[in-house]
Amino acid sequence: MKLKWKSCLTAALLLVFLSGCRTYPDEIGSFRFPILDGDIQEGRDAFVRLECNQCHVVDGVQLPAFSGPRPVTVELGGEMYFAKTYGDLVTSIINPDHVLSDEYLDQLPSEVRRRTNSSPMYMKEDMLVTELIDIVAFLNSRYRLLPGYTEYYY
Fold this sequence. Notes:
About 35% of the residues lie in helices and about 10% in strands. It is mainly alpha-helical. Helix 2 (about 40-50) packs across helix 5 and helix 3 packs across helix 5 (about 130-140).
């Protein structure tokens, strides 16, 4: 009986210690959204259909020119020293003002810089989940990690 109790305690402690371990998406080459894999071409098409090209250009991709006014130009993709995870990309799409680059802010008039809903994305409330997944797959395909990448997690 005492041995069974010690085994249960050991298993519980091991479970507690293992729950503190974290697996990061960047370390797992097969990490994907739990719903389905995104389609890069469909993501490119949705990117244009939802008029993301109003403010964004994508590194290495020829997109149709936006016909209306282009208030700012923010480049997505390219070479980076840190990994853009699917979570980073999803967050940037559904909450565009979560992290704003200095490059973006420098393009905005000073009276607009302090607003929390400066992105036209807030007017695109009808984006489908499948479109979101496809756009993330499309954008993720356009980032390249440079040598010297170091993982920092907070």
